[in-house]
Design brief:
The chain is mostly helical. The protein is 73% helix and 0% strand.
């Protein structure tokens, strides 16, 4: 015979298992972020002020077109491309390539986090 304590104990185990899965998923995403953020940035015209570089490059009139081109044509073939190779392949400055990859990576990360949030919402409103 199942008692109320057994039922509560089973639910506590499920909640703990889900928490552990979420924590592992979160840690995996953080590990991926830390690996990709460690870039050796060394090119002409860069003196270490990344925020100024990013803001300046985003004001280039065709920046969104370049970003779209890289997202649609370059990344499907080479998802792990470095900014140096992207610069060489597309003929754009290394700084522009770096910012494009930075923005595209952040866009992808935001989508993944949004998907995780939507899964959490769906799971919270699901009745078992």
């Amino acid at each position: 015979m199942t008692t109320l304590y057994d039922y509560i104990g089973d639910n506590d185990k499920k909640v703990e298992e889900e928490r552990i899965k979420e924590e592992q998923s979160y840690n995996a995403v953080l590990t991926k972020i830390h690996k990709q953020k460690l870039l050796n940035i060394n090119f002409t015209g860069f003196e270490g002020r990344l925020s100024d570089l990013i803001d300046g490059i985003r004001t280039i009139p065709n920046y969104n077109n370049l970003k779209g081109y890289v997202r649609e044509n370059v990344l499907p073939e080479n998802p792990e491309i470095s900014y140096e190779k992207l610069s060489f392949k597309t003929g754009i400055h290394e700084g522009v390539a770096l910012v494009i990859l930075y923005d595209l990576y952040n866009d992808k990360l935001e989508e993944e986090l949004k998907d995780l949030d939507e899964e959490d919402i769906d799971r919270d409103f699901r009745y078992d």
